[in-house]
Each structure stands twice: as structure tokens, then as C-alpha cells.
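Reviewers of the previous submission asked for a worked example of the structure-prediction workflow described in the proposal, so we include one complete record here. The input consisted solely of the amino acid sequence. No template or homolog information was supplied to the procedure at any stage.
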Amino acid sequence: MNIGQAARQSGLSAKMIRYYESIGLLRAANRTDSGYRLYSAQDLHTLAFIKRSRDLGFSLEEVGKLLALWQDRQRASADVKALAREHIEALSRKIEELAGLRDTLQDLVEHCHGDHRPDCPILKDLESGGCCN
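From that input alone, the workflow returned the following C-alpha cells.
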């Protein structure tokens, strides 16, 4: 199938497919005599793997590691589990960071009168960079 068909079936854009190929996550596509890329069912399977990994928030580097483990039939599942645990820890740190940002912004919103007066603690905080209130 051509890249347009592969894009439709995988849920990825043709641009992303070309990018994944350029960075080595997807093997170089076979080409027609006129230079058009051709993708196999295995390529689609790999694209689905990449898409699902990215949907779960794995970085491109992590996806590369996961692909290598997936393709290595002699792999230890402990290696896959360790990589997934590291990702969970990173997600947990990010969730805590986002919760802190939400709480700070919520506090600022609660202290803003939101009326006709020009005084606004939200803008003051942004101006000060979050310090020296």
C-alpha cells in the first residue's frame, strides 16, 4: 500500500510516517520504480505499535527501546516492565507538577476580584515571575 493508505489505516499522518522512517523507528519502505513508498502489513503493525506507544506518552527514545524489545524474541519481560515503570514514575512526577501549577493558578484566580478595577494578582504574579509578591 502507498503512504496515503498506510496513513489512513494507521491513524498517523504521512508526514509522521516519513519522520518515523527517517529516524529509524520504521524500516525504510520499499519503493516502486517511480520512487513511491510501499508499506506492508508488517509495516502497519509496526506503525500501530509506535502509535500506541506514543499515545501512552512514551518518548521517541523510549519507543525505540520498546521496538527493540518487541522485535527481540529472546528479551526478558523484566526489561520491558522496568522501562514501563520508569515511564510511570516520570508520568507521576509530571502529574504532580501539573497539579502544583493548577493549584497556584487556582489560588491566583481566587484572589483576583474579576471586576472593573485594574488591580489583578494574576498579572502581578506573571510580571514578577512568581516571586517577590
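Strands lie at 30-31, 37-38. We consider this example representative of the routine output the project will generate in years two and three.
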